[in-house]
Amino acid sequence: MIIAVCGAGTMGRGIALLSLLSGHNARIYDVSEIALQNAETYIIHQLAKLTEKGKIDQQAADRCTKNLLCTNDITILVQDAHFIIEAIIEYLEPKIDLFVSIENAGLSETTILATNTSSLSVNVLSKNRKFPHRFVGLHFFNPAQIMKLVEIVQANSTSEKTVEECVELCTLLGKSPVIAKDVPGFIVNRVARNYYNESMRIATEQMATPKQIDSIMKSAGFRMGPFELMDLIGNDINLDVTKSVASQYFNEPRFTPSLMQQTVVNAGTYGRKTGSGFYDYNDTL
Predict the structure, then answer these.
(1) Of the listed 24, 116, 139, 228, which one is catalytic?
(2) Domain total of the chain
(3) In this structure, are 198 and 175 located in the same domain?
């Protein structure tokens, strides 16, 4: 099976690595040559780490490397692909422009075109698609090669056959698929807004520090505290999702973004990827 991914960033390369480790061919498309090089380097490095740890053997690592193709040619991306998964910047216009380019490059009606959006309306993205019945939301979570959950978001035009094929794909990838309605934030991000926002409200009111809040939540059974998780996701991405959800719920107060996170983003301290966020990671990079 050929699984093509648009976007060589964190999510795109994670989905590609997952596809390779599951025995499939993976293609990564990006307009940036540097982003493609970084994605390829990351995947090769991850395969080497898995080999060193005995998780896969060298033969499997070599097979994964052979099955990876990075390209800035969209016609190569589209050719014979079974799934094309968009994982680019979380804004409506660039995504729609990309879908039009994919369709113009020779998208087949047998190919499922999916968006990895975490907050935008799949119904809006599906409008004016060439094959709307083959368009769907496939929301992976970061890191895609590790996190088990995938939200399958069905637009009004998405066929049941397309949903069934997506469930089958997720199962083949070792994921736990959940079918979600096209509502702002779907399931997880709607729940998570309160996890993040209330934690920042507590910290802003100086009832507890981010470190204390994280420790309390982990002692309650959460794998990561809210501030650790925001730093892992990227505070810039997390804030954009919060703003998107808040807007789509007509600025309902409980979804209001936090000035605390906006301040962190304004400073360019997005989290792990920049070396600091709510925590300092410079000594661990």
Answers:
(1) 139
(2) 2
(3) no
